[in-house]
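User: Show me a protein chain along with its predicted structure.
Assistant: Here is one chain, sequence first, then structure tokens.
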Amino acid sequence: MTMSKVYIAESSRVYEALFLDNGFDITNNPIEADLVCFTGGADVSPSMYGELPHKYTQSHMRRDKSDVDVWDTAMDNDIPMVGICRGSQFLNVMSGGSMWQHVDNHAMRGTHPVRDDISGEMFECTSTHHQMMRPNEEATIIGTADLSTVRYSMIGGHENKVERAYPDLDIEVVTYQQYNVLCFQPHPEITPVGSECQSYFFKLLERELGVK
């Protein structure tokens, strides 16, 4: 059986282990890949979605440029893309979405429930992000959580604080079908093999991107 090949942008051992332990092969050439994965790291530069940085935003222009180059390669070669944490936020922005530049109750290493809005199933996932995706109308919302109480953006250069109330849930997983993109904010790479978070991640790769 031929294994699917993944190209991991800004790779590290934990991401390599994530895919190797779940039956993938790794390639250093994105053009050879069946899947391109964008990984965690610094915040996406707010200039990429038309805002000034919030006081808690820490971005890295070199990382942004490097990821944009990989995005261009994947788009030119019709390769499905998945993003984890920062990687999901990057793909959300590249697909036309924006970001809440700061939210509470997600900068933790424990697990919390994520509801799959397609199947109705609940999964325990990690959460270590202080920013959160704001997808546009072309996105399909896949997974949601109920954690944050406040969210911040920068509108017209001024801090905009929003008090969150149910049923306005936290968006954890989205797809942009027109770009063949899956945005996954939790961290399957730091959970054990066979955990609900890892199993859910790879289930979505097959269900939403057709990659297994």
